[in-house]
Amino acid sequence: MRLRDHAFQVILTAALWLGCAALTGCGGSAAAGASGDVREAAEAGGNGQEETETAVEAAETEAAETETAETEAAETETAETAADGETETGTETAEPDGDEQQESSLVPAPEPLTVWAWDQGYAIAAMKEAEAFYRKDHPGFALDIIEKSPEEIKKALLTAGSAGDSSLLPDILLLPDDDFILCVKRCPTLFTDLTRSGIDYDQFVPEKVSRTRRKGINYGIPFDLGTVCAAYRTDILREAGLTIDDMTDLTWEEWIEKGRRVLDNTGHPMIAVREGSADLLVMMLQSKGLSLYNKEGKVSLADNEELRRCILLYRDALQQGVIMQVKDDKAYRAAVNDGTAAGIIGGSGTLSIVMAAQKQTGLWAVTNMPRVEESKEAGYYADLGGSSWAITVECRQLSAAEDFFRNTFGGSVRFYETLLPVTGTISAYLPTRESTVYGMPREFFGGQSVYALLNDFAARVTYVKTVRRESEVRACLGSAVLSVINEGTDVGTALETAQTAARFLTE
């Protein structure tokens, strides 16, 4: 099959799957699933191509015809929401109180606010903690939290936007930062303008806020940062004659060498990765202040020498058994919790996976990620991207919802201090960096002050601009990596195919 035909099949499948059905949840399962579908389509070919192309073209045509009307409706809705926000909150910007909830005379919501989110051990647990925290001063307040995957939430939004019917949406939902602005752009009338909600966005990491802001309007409430860290089982390291200090400030080449030592002495690979996920490569690039795009904001895969170097390092680690591939998120979690893998590298949210195995209390320690050698710009710090909350247009109790967020995720250090031992969430709320609670030793991590360490990592990250359709580009890269690892495809050829597909989707 010619390269152009192969790339076209990749394009069609990626567009249909990602546009209608779906990232990296806590870091990458959506992208992994997407790249798996892309590969299947590339292998299948056949008569389904014409039907897929027709469906994609029809969907894109419908989106194009309705975008102008949606934008006009969004402007009207923005004005109405802003006026409503001034009337109900009585202020444009609330001063964060730090240790105490902001005063509120609002009557608690008479009906539970519905919430869509994913991950029982992380985002859903965080929302339950927020509900309990807020209810202390607002008796009768309640949430109805429904578990839905990132793909299901995105699909519901795009379907509602296309049909012009938002009646099935919840009051509140969670979206990966990589998909947030894409959904706002495609369905602007489904999101509430929170610019005048009383949340002081100047108190958050600016790069985080930018991921949910469009044309000067804030549509999201920041949840977490995706600060990258490495965590290892200290008992497994000890069997190989290593300590956590030996795993700190390493190059990837040094990390692979020590990983071989661990594998040879204990039989444990260092980490597991989801098959088809590009997350580790994105982390490696970002530690150098780079991304999958060039300075002009154009997709840069085939002509990205640093990406090529990262793929070669990744392939070497897989071939030596230092990294193991697993099929899906369930297998990924199992590899961490059952002791198959000696460690984990990912966004700080992945520590909730580690802490799910309470029988391993005291056996884990955290340090920084390795850096790419031969690069003066390379560091040991990156951010994989987190997620943010949104209030939909279907929320009929806007005052209650905004007050809830002002006093929890949107403006309370005390709330984040309460949340910390439950989920290990590293907040984008800047005042938390002065909290003494973050500096407390954590028994699970052998008395290490893990969250002070992660806050320090977060402050050292060189953030890169998130570009629209980031998840689609990651899916194309994930497909290329699968081809290189599983089929022995030349790296350059695989990246050329991914480049063609990604540019079609984004330009």
> What is the terminal-to-terminal distance?
25 Å
Q: Give the CATH level 1 class of the largest domain.
A: Alpha Beta
Principal-axis shape: globular
E-strand count: 12
The overall average pLDDT, rounded, is 83
What would CATH call the architecture of the largest domain?
3-Layer(aba) Sandwich
Low-pLDDT residue intervals, each spanning 5 or more residues: 1-6, 8-98
Q: Which percent bin holds the helix content?
A: 40-55%
Q: Number of domains in the coordinates?
A: 2
The secondary structure category is alpha/beta
Number of helices: 18
Q: What is the H-and-E element order?
A: HHHEHEHEHHEEEEHHEHHEHEHEEHHHHH
Summarize this structure as a short list of keywords or feature phrases.
single chain; about 500 residues; alpha/beta; D-Maltodextrin-Binding Protein, domain 2; 5-stranded mixed β-sheet; 3-stranded antiparallel β-sheet; disordered N terminus
Helix and strand topology:
Blueprint: H1 3-20, H2 29-44, H3 48-89, E1 113-117, H4 123-135, E2 143-147, H5 150-163, E3 172-176, H6 177-186, H7 206-210, E4 213-214, E5 217-218, E6 221-222, E7 228-233, H8 234-239, H9 252-266, E8 271-274, H10 279-286, H11 305-319, E9 323-326, H12 329-337, E10 343-347, H13 351-355, E11 364-367, E12 387-391, H14 398-406, H15 413-423, H16 450-460, H17 470-487, H18 491-506
Parallel strand pairs: 1-2, 1-3, 8-9
Antiparallel strand pairs: 3-12, 4-5, 6-12, 7-10, 7-11
